[in-house]
């Protein structure tokens, strides 16, 4: 009888459905995507029974799009400029929301001669990790400014870029992220730092590539350095097109209803709102997200 009961219990356990896996492709552990993704995963695991969310460290935007498109992740964050304007066969991913804007930082030490973009000529500069949105935006900026072939470039992620700048192995680095970027904040707190104003290149980028680029300010209060205006690029939370509509509805609902909790994980999430979230052009929105926004109208 005991053996039969044990077998029956084992059979019941084995018949329990496996949880639905939601892998969230983020970026560097020191950047906004990761903090945002970790908080979102915590909320999903707490509030959606039968769903297990986890966070993946990646090179960020370009890799995230690829991972969501090929099924290696279910959710991911990406800059808008990483997405093709009109891909053959249509987009392989869908949007859940526009979440906040990334600001392109060009960071150098405060004791260098680099005071404007032109001054990086002849210097060693990290343009971001291979497969990142930073790399795409930085290389486009270098192209429109005529500096692409007059600097020595490195492809370093955020943490490696900060370490290399501290050690003097590079003279400056680019990073695109929501304010504040913790790794840059930490660097500026214990080093003489400078962020370079890039405002004059917003319009050349818009003309050469796409109109997603806008000018945004980095005030002194963010990093304690001189205020600048730089290039900003919207960020989207994307999802695989095949994810069930009801599940995406619930994910969108949690994203909107738990904005305060997400903002506690990183201030960039405080910019979330249903009105701005639906501005995901040119990327179509997933039907589950569309249903949520329509149902939540006052």
UniProtKB/TrEMBL annotation:
InterPro entries: TRAP_TAXI. SUPFAM superfamilies: Periplasmic binding protein-like II. Gene3D superfamilies: Periplasmic binding protein-like II. It comes from the Bacteria. This is TAXI family TRAP transporter solute-binding subunit. It comes from Micromonospora sonneratiae. The lineage of its organism: Bacteria, Bacillati, Actinomycetota, Actinomycetes, Micromonosporales.
């Amino acid at each position: 009888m005991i053996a039969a009961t044990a077998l029956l219990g084992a059979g019941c356990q084995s018949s329990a459905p496996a949880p639905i896996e939601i892998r969230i492709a983020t970026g560097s552990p020191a950047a906004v995507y990761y903090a945002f993704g970790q908080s979102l995963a915590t909320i999903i695991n707490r509030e959606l029974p039968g769903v297990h969310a986890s966070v993946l460290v990646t090179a960020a935007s370009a890799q995230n799009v690829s991972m969501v498109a090929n099924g290696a992740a279910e959710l991911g964050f990406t800059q808008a400029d990483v997405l093709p304007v009109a891909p053959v066969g249509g987009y392989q991913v869908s949007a859940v929301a526009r979440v906040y804007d990334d600001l392109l930082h060009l960071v150098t030490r405060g004791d260098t001669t680099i005071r404007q973009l032109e001054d990086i000529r002849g210097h060693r500069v990290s343009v971001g990790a291979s497969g990142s949105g930073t790399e795409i935006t930085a290389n486009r900026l270098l192209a429109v400014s005529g500096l692409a072939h007059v600097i020595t470039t490195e492809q370093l992620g955020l943490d490696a870029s900060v370490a290399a700048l501290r050690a003097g192995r590079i003279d400056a680095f680019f990073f695109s992220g929501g304010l504040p970027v913790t790794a840059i904040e930490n660097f500026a707190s214990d080093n003489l730092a400078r962020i370079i104003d890039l405002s004059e290149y917003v319009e050349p980028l818009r003309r050469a590539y796409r109109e997603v680029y806008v000018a945004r300010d980095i005030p002194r209060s963010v990093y304690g350095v001189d205020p600048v205006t730089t290039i900003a690029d919207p960020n989207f939370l994307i999802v695989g097109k095949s994810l069930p509509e009801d599940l995406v509805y619930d994910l969108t609902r949690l994203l909107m209803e738990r904005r305060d909790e997400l903002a506690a994980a990183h201030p960039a999430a405080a910019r979330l709102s249903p009105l701005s979230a639906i501005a995901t052009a040119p990327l179509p929105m997933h039907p589950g997200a569309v249903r949520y926004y329509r149902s939540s109208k006052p």
